[in-house]
Amino acid sequence: MTFTQDHLLGIEHLHPAEITAILDLAEDYVALNRSAEKHSRALQGMTQINMFFEASTRTQASFELAGKRLGADVMSMAMAQSSVKKGETLIDTALTLNAMHPDLLVVRHGNSGAVDLLAQKVNCAVLNAGDGKHEHPTQALLDGLTIRRAKGRLHRLTVAICGDIAHSRVARSNLILLGKMENRVRLVGPGTLMPKGVEDFGVEVFDDMKAGLEGADVVMMLRLQRERMDGGFVPSEREYFHRYGLDAEKLAYAKDDAIVMHPGPMNRGVEIDGAIADDINRSVIQEQVEMGVAVRMAAMDLLAQNLRRRRERDRLRSISDE
Amino acid sequence: MLWFHNARLIDPEGGTDAVGTLLVQDGTITERDGPCPDGAQAVDCGGKCLAPGIVDMGVQVGEPGAQHKESLRTAGLAAARGGVTTIVMRPDTDPAIDTPEVLEYVTRRATARTPVNIRAMAALTRDRAGREMAEISFLLDAGAVAFTDGDRVSTDTKVLSRCMAYARGLGALVIGHPQDPGLSYGACATSGKFASLRGLPAVSPMAERMGFDRDMGLVEMTGVRYHADQITSARSLPALTRAKANRLDVTAGISIHHLTLNELDLGSYRSFFKFTPPLRSEDDRRAMVQAVADGLIDVICSMHTPQDEESKRLPFEEAAAGAVGLETLLPAAMRLYHSEGLDLPTIWRALSLNPAKRLGLAGGRLAADAPADLVLFDPDAPFVLDRATLASKSKNTPYDGARMEGRVLATYVSGVCVFDAQEVVA
Description:
The structure holds two protein chains of two kinds. Chain A is of the alpha/beta class.
């Protein structure tokens, strides 16, 4: 048994062998998802609740689809319109849902660490679908799978992550995962969007995008939120695109076969040139979305196996106690 | 009449730690190292340490306004159990202690309800809002020992400079919270690798030095007596050294938490480790311990901040800051003795003598004529802290489950025993 986790809270807690186990199983689900009968019984009889305290389209849809294809009963709650608005605390919400006996809780929250806190209070498997500026583990896993399929391996690659690193949970999870799998990670962006102490993460930091992309195998672009471009972090959209937007000229510094990734949703013309995003020879952005469903199916499958094992063990223990 | 013998007397004034005796009469120390006079009750200290009671500078009591978190009575009980003989209250109550009427109310309630001495600081500005000066003169007459807006840092330097100039004329002590308000806005961790990994909004320790530098400019301008409530970062120390060398009337304090914990203790978002200012790096912590040893930092306090479970059981960013500390101040300070090589008189200089001197109180000494505010403790007694056993109404201590050494055996206020560990056990 390689995968030993009770929850998927962050890449930080995963062993490289566990990452590989998820990706290997995800390959099976890629095949399943491409077949006509997109059904498995891995989560048969189980209940999955999606709690998104922050708005999400693709991640929520991806988790919902993943659960349904595995045969779970899936419920998605739009927390923004729920009792949270009436002043209920996160923990009370969690305990209320916990009383309904879910098996898998998928949670996105605006505060770093909120999903960890919630996981301590419930007795089902919790998946972090993004917490504040902390982690977004399934995104890093789907990115890892996409890279592995495109490049044939997930080690000894040079990966440039570009843009708003400071506010990005995607960047954090990715740089931890890529580091664990022994890749060279470069972070590219202006000082205002670079987290403090980042040099100590075992990454190279670049202010100049061309230098950062030089010889890269993978170029990973991050979304820059428009409200950060009004002079607070970056002077203007056009200056940002000039210095850090991915266009053909800057991409030419990367390896000829370098792939281009983006976690979405994209701001065309801000961080990425539309022509590059649509270039089927370079861009793997659509593939990332496809891998997202498969990786989430794999992660939930493995967590459900551990949950069943744990419950069986507890049951046997309670019998022997009697 | 009480005659303490067979005790290690910890004298921060003389810097000595030696076996001796102490005679207490009518609430005052009358003789040291003398024989037992007729009619005196002998107290055998069993070779343990007898020191001046702790003067805890900067305690938040929830009364008035938040009695469900801590009342004057429970704070007093916690203080007695922790060897704190004088609580110096912060004015961050609701309403704030910003008028002589509120101060009088608090003083009256405190006298009736607490076994230890309670003195109060008053707000520097009305409602601690940083706009209009409080009635500093009236408040002084009513017994305020210092003036502070707590951790609400003034953004209007003109108002602050006027408050300081006015306080200077009255000889009042102003306590500042050195922090640049712009840089530290919204932050709940110290910037660096750890905060970045955890994705928490963070502030550079430089914000503390910038705030301190600003305050030093105003102190030089007005000549006011100034105390920095917490200096927690190595970056601020050169500025503090310079201010003292320039003969500004400046002292500085630090909470025991910043001397014994560092940012890594946050672990997986443990909100009991959320403080204002946030916990610093290990390098900073060690520099601060050295600064206390050198006497550059004058005062160690608990920064007792009671918070109920509801304020803490939240995502880290939304959780309230602060920890209770009255009862854990002494055992935590013993970590400096056991692990950092500080001797007991040096620690007591910062816990007791310096705060008393700075606030113009009589305590903090073991000399004849000093009040008999005493703590008898065993610096080596080990225990594991269980937060449920704390006397405070709120149990938000970062030391829950921690192995500690140092137990208070008895606490005396004006020669009267207000806490005896044996009675509690029995």
